[in-house]
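Collaborator request, handled under Task 6.
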Amino acid sequence: MVESSDMDQAVSELKIMSSDYQLQSVLVIDDDIELTDMLSTYLNSMGYKVKVCNDGEAGLAEAVSGHHYDLILLDVMMPKMDGFDVLKKLRASHTTPVLMLTARGDDYDRILGLEMGADDYLPKPFNHRELVARIKAIVRRHNIASLGGGAIEQDLVINGIFLSPSSQSAKVDETELTLTTTEFSILRLLMLNAAKRVTKEEISLKILGKPLQAFDRSIDMHVSNLRKKIAGAAHDEKIKTIRGVGYMLLLNKE
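Structure tokens returned to the collaborator:
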């Protein structure tokens, strides 16, 4: 006989799995018309609905227009408004997942984009299969966060932090936090493992959906952003760095 809780969990997992096969809507903001035409054709062939904007101003207007997008592909270098300005203005009111497309060879664009709230980045030129893999990983973790990893998952309250998987909301001492999908997922993982070390490798695999690469500072940037938002509402340290290993959510002030 199947326990009720097991059945509920199975149904929840099926909902998350089925969301991977639902038609996803992607907004592409990039001034390279040849690239956006190619991306639109390819993503359409993979079952995605695609809307293209070829400058930053038009892209931002579309992103905040009220139309639902599961993910935004955002280029950095664009006329009228660059990708960083678009991201900054977008993050003031929206938490739609953003995958930044960076053209420069150095880390400047990548780090700045992550600091400003991008969920992930992909340097140009890129393999189209890798792009789709990144899109699937980001959308999947957004769906998991939205569904709380399962409809029966309870709210978490640890060290003044309140996190509700069902409503995808978080508070610190009654102050609402505006978190990106990635930040929310990292906080949830740390809270589920409170007072335990969570390695960067584990965060990268479970949250970003990819192995941790040497010199990749993505996790550091996401945790740094999360810390800043928590610090704005708290007066004590909540997340401790375990040098050379990862991070730990403290049960109380240490």
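The cover message to the collaborator said: "DSSP finds nine helices and twelve strands in the chain. Residues 1-21 have pLDDT under 50 and may be disordered. Please let us know whether this matches your experimental observations."
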